[in-house]
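INFO worker-7 received task bundle
INFO bundle size: 2
INFO processing item 0
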Amino acid sequence: MRYGRTIVAIAMLLVLAVGSFMFVLPLTMAEPVDTYHSRWHLVRETADEDAADFATAYDLTGVGTTDGDFASKDTSSVLAGGAFQIRSANASFGHEGYSAGGAWIFAICGSNYADVDDTFSFDIIGWSKTNGMLQKIAEGDGVIGTQAVGIYPDGGDAHGALISLTSVAYTHSTETFTESGEFGDAAVGMMARVTGTGFTNEIVDITTATANTVICDITTSATDCTDATIQINPAFWADTINLDATTKWPSVAVYNSGNNQVCIVLIDTTGLEWIQWIFYDAGAGSGEAGNITVYGRRY
């Protein structure tokens, strides 16, 4: 009987242990919620090109160059144009609590300076932990599309970052907005978001610009008004991205390119702690986009 009671006790303990394991298992094996609810993070602050070309930013040629060393990585903050740190210690991640590695998606937005479809070029580079060398991930070019940003994912007005005015006088016959001394930063080729009495809200080309007036290619106006709002130069999402090389990194892909919607770049960041987008051909020449911003999130 003594042995029988012992066997029964052991059996009961095994049942309890198995039951506890089955109870805990769903909790420990559940998919990480951050994959589904990760917010967009600012990966590259709004700015024009970083350099005339990639080699000007990071020279990887020649025996004497050290630009490919970890110590040569741009140590500036993202707000100052530096690399983005993707490990979980990054305070901006807050409660999301995910670690480095896994897939990230990235979206690019910018402003037009030559009406529509302005372009840009880029290189994507990364580093692993301390003393990891610079590694080229991808390179390519893109086109700004027609889906307006509105509000940046991390907050802030993306319609009128350059100029935002209310109660502006609008003359219907000449499609002219007048506000003394307020349009000095506007230029032909920029876009304007206009709202007000007598015309439907729209984003239009600026065809003439002076310090006091701008003329836009309005398509829906019907009358003069004095309550117009004009916001210059709206940001739009890049809708087309082309990769010049797809064999530099194990997994890089582009989705939804060429549809006048948000085009994304999907990168397997496994092994990387830092990532940086280097832009050129952006903001310094005819037909080039400017005010380029990059956002990224865990995928």
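INFO item 0 finished
INFO processing item 1
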Amino acid sequence: MRKLPLFIFFLILINFFLPKVTPNILAQQKEINEEEIEVIIPEKSIFCTDFGISYHQGSKEEVVADCPSETSSCDPNNTAEIWLEGEETKQPDFSIMNFRLDSTRPKLMPLQLNEKVNLDTGKITTRAKHFVVSENTTCPFNPEDTPSTSEVVNSIPETEFTLPDWWTTLLSQTKIFCGLFSASERCQPPEKLTILIDKPDNEEKLSALSNDIDINDPEYAICDDYGELARSQPPELKDIERTFNFTSLKKKIIAFFEELKKYFQTTTREANLTNKTRGVLVGGHTLTNQSEFFSDFLIHEINDSLEKDALAGNAKYGVSQDLEITEPDKAEKEHYQEQNQTRARYCLQLCSLYPNDEKFDVNSIDPICGSCNPKYYQNQGSQY
């Protein structure tokens, strides 16, 4: 598809603020020839969070001992629970971006072409794992497999996410805009005007997502954390598994009572743990690439300075009674890797449609945007 002149683009994008929703042919279940469909294989990005948990159980036993002693042993049968509460969990919200693109597209394309555009509206499901790791125990979790003193628990809690339907549409929508404006290798034009996203829509594909999440893989090991988004939307969640097993550290503390000539042994089971949530945002890297068409309207100095930093969304975790979250601030956020770059491109392009006025607040146009100052988006992620 041929690109439109730059000045026409700016004139027409003013219609971002005159919303008009166009019908989606796929949503109307119109039958389409398979030869007219382009299927996008979505590339993932990662979301993550790390926070501390403590485990403590104690009991007092009266025993007779020949002499004071101090020992420690491992109990492999202890279990606990950790889960992610769906109503509090939120991903970065690009729904207004999607709405504006959808409203603008009919004004950018010839009528006959636009009528042939069909965007996927089906929801995407994905998964996350919650690795619970002990950092300072003398009892390895898997002593037969490895002698390390920092091991992942045997059973890994898991959460299933159903992302909002606008996310799927945005992946399709930005593909069309790549054809209108971008000459980037990462933002290629579509070959067809009916766009479908290859979703993990069965247990086999979802299990493949889960199996790919490995806390020892460098891709998943580090979690870049930044501030919290001003606005985000909750996906639908359900627990796949809540319970995990861990080997607790028993500390034997012997108290001597001179007058009774006995030793009272107090057995305390305790462990300092870390939760490392790692999940897959299906299409996250695809959106980063396809949002590059916004960069065509930014000067190179600004565009080159925008990093693939993380954006944070709200989160809320629950734990069973024998656990305590020791870093609640960290447990209230999940960090979506790469998504700051998408936000920065979109928000700065949005700013370019308005006069350079100190009183203008782009946050009032779309709450996901924090500023019209490029430095706001450079090497800091989301800092509200």
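INFO item 1 finished
INFO post-check item 1: Confidence is low (pLDDT under 50) at residues 1-30, 59-76, 137-151, 247-266.
INFO post-check item 1: Residues 71 and 262 are 18 Å apart (CA to CA).
INFO worker-7 idle
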